[in-house]
Amino acid sequence: MYKIISYIIKPENPNYPDNSKTEFTSICKIKNGDFCNTTKIQLYTHNDTHVDAPFHFNINGTKISEIEPSDFFYNNIVTLNMNSKIGKEISLFDVGDSIKKDTDMLLIYSGISSLWDNSPDKFVMKKNQPWLSKDLAEYLIKNTNLRAIGVDFMCVDNLDDISNDKGPVHDILLGLNELSKSIYIYEDVNTKLIINDKINRIYAFPMLLYGLDGSPVTMVVEIL
Ligand SMILES: [Zn+2]
Question: CATH no. for residue 17?
Fold first, then answer.
């Protein structure tokens, strides 16, 4: 069985109010007498379910068009159901020793994606966003073999830091201090769909946008 844990891209999806909006502009419309349907799309690289490439915060980091074929697949996934982390920090203590040597992706359900469908206004409120602690980011980059982390909130950093033009958690995970290593960051992932599942594999397909910092991504979970 398979589940899709990326959101379907729609202009009305909840995103940061200050992000550039998604737009679909019809170019040809059969309804209007044209011979086919075609559409121009405007996408922001960090709206909806998307992946941050190391280049997002690290000028020397991998760009999304340089992703290795093996990084489209994850085989040893740890899922953490935290449920009660709306507006709170997720720390090393919360993750404990759940990550094993062969774990290649960590998926977090913080509880905030439960607001996505029915309370989108609350979902986008800055005060409701969880974030990862710097200690946790340091641990993940130094002590694990993770290739990716996926979260159900829109930003792994505390938004107070982002407001001050800082992103220490992005810096650490995207390899700014650890030039030989980085971890792909999947944000705004609909992890509530798979909290009770046993996962065999995850497929994550970004668009190969030349030289860019990230991309909307389609994520498919194969369930045992
Ligand atoms: Zn992002």
Answer: 3.50.30.50
